[in-house]
Design a protein that fits this description.
alpha/beta, Aspartate Aminotransferase, domain 1, seven-stranded mixed beta sheet, globular, binds D-malate
Length: 410
């Protein structure tokens, strides 16, 4: 008889966001009149902007004519997009990344989940706590952890607590780890790491031959010029880091799907014969074997964000969301919450300042204010007591949600 992958039985409940969706649907069924405001999953609400949608239409139009029709594209992405990424996202910031080190994909969720395939099974993997749950769950599915320990942690993973005391930047681990996931601007806490903090991690990685998996999906929300957008802005990072970026939150592509992963050609890890081997050819092999590329019109639309018109439009949408973040921060602080993040990131991370657990607060807000956020404990045990608000909602709904929270009885 066929055997199933028992590792799936170790997973706890459903994936966080579908689980929230399920609870919200159940509540809505029982209260059909409830006008629920959703600030849970970080999903964008503003449409693709005019210049970007025009490029998208042009791409579609080209597919309708024999002279310009495209079949399979290059699996790693069209050169026009990879070159625009290398120039705008890296070289213009002094990071020496080349177009052929970029792999265009359909999402950072998939890439951060799949990247471990090119690493051996005995690596010690570390991740922040709280953390984007994809890193944990995909490690569990692939059998890279031991059993669930019953306290929010899996055996075999190294958790790096991020809390108000350490400014949501984890301490360098005492134990040597082989792979570490770092995410800045951080999901879920909305906090950022400066160059000195990231330099410590790069130095640690160089010293210990650790690979940093750097998720920078929210970099477009950074406005402080002192905060790096890429790990490659840190000296030495090209020798130790893989970076993930996404057009989802940058330009409203959550439904359109486009992202990319950077693997520098000189990045190496150890093979079982003890020699250092480059990771680039492995990911190249994996990507070209398992993926057939992002659709041409989507890549055309993605490239349009690097034009002067595209940049202007994308900036306006980001400003719209960051104005929401400001309203969230100010309103929640007035209501007695301890507020973090939301300055160079679209997530506002709060502690209610009251004796209430994250899921209890979720239920209270849903039942009494018809407002949905994300319980901090869903991102890991260090998130207990915290709650995440996403600023990707519409401006009107953010105002309405904050008014409702102001009327809550505690
Ligand atoms: C989130 O809400 O954390 C994100 O939307 C999830 C994602 O990007 O997959």
């Amino acid at each position: 008889m066929a055997q199933i992958n028992d590792n799936y039985f170790k997973l706890q409940a459903g994936y966080l966001f579908p689980e929230i969706g399920r609870r919200v649907r159940e509540f809505q069924k029982e209260h059909p009149q409830a006008d629920i405001i959703k600030m849970g999953i970080g999903d964008v609400t503003q449409p693709l902007t005019p210049f970007i949608i025009r490029a998208f239409h042009e791409g579609v139009e080209e597919m309708s004519k024999i002279e310009t029709f495209k079949g399979y594209g290059p699996e790693q992405g069209y050169d026009f997009l990879r070159e625009a990424i290398a120039k705008n996202d890296y070289q213009n910031r002094g990071a020496d990344i080349h177009a052929d080190e970029i792999f265009v994909s359909d999402g950072s969720k998939c890439d951060t989940g799949n990247i471990l395939e090119i690493f051996g099974m005995n690596n010690v993997i570390a991740m922040q706590d709280p953390v984007y749950p994809v890193y944990v769950d995909t490690s569990v599915m692939a059998g890279r952890t031991g059993e669930y320990l019953g306290n929010g942690y899996y055996d075999g993973l190294v958790y790096l607590p991020c809390n108000a005391e350490n400014g949501f930047i984890p301490e360098i681990p005492k134990k040597k780890v082989d792979i570490v996931f770092l995410c800045y601007p951080n999901n879920p806490t909305g906090t950022t790491a400066g160059k000195p903090e990231l330099k410590k991690w790069v130095d640690y990685a160089i010293k210990n031959k650790t690979i940093i998996l750097y998720d920078s999906a929210y970099e477009a929300y950074i406005s402080d010029p002192e905060i790096p957008h890429s790990i490659y802005e840190i000296e030495g990072a090209k020798k130790v880091a893989i970076e993930f970026r996404s057009f989802s939150k940058t330009a409203g592509f959550t439904g359109t799907r486009c992202a990319y992963t950077v693997i520098p050609k000189n990045l190496v890890a150890s093979s079982s014969d003890g020699s250092d081997k480059p990771l680039y050819p492995l990911w190249f092999r994996r990507h070209t074997t398992k993926f057939n590329g992002v659709s041409y019109p989507v890549q055309k639309a993605a490239a349009a964000i690097f034009t002067p018109e595209g940049k202007k439009e994308v900036r306006a949408t980001i400003n719209y969301y960051m104005n929401n973040a400001k309203i969230l921060r100010e309103s929640l602080a007035k209501l007695g919450f301890h507020v973090f993040g939301g300055v160079n990131a679209p997530y506002v991370w709060v502690n209610s300042g009251r004796q209430i657990k994250s899921w209890e607060l979720f239920d209270k807000l849903l039942h009494e204010a018809y407002v949905v956020g994300t319980p901090g404990s869903g991102f890991g045990p260090s998130g207990e007591g915290y709650f995440r608000f996403s600023s990707f909602a519409t401006h009107e709904s953010v105002l309405k949600a904050m008014e409702r929270l102001g009327n809550l009885k505690w």
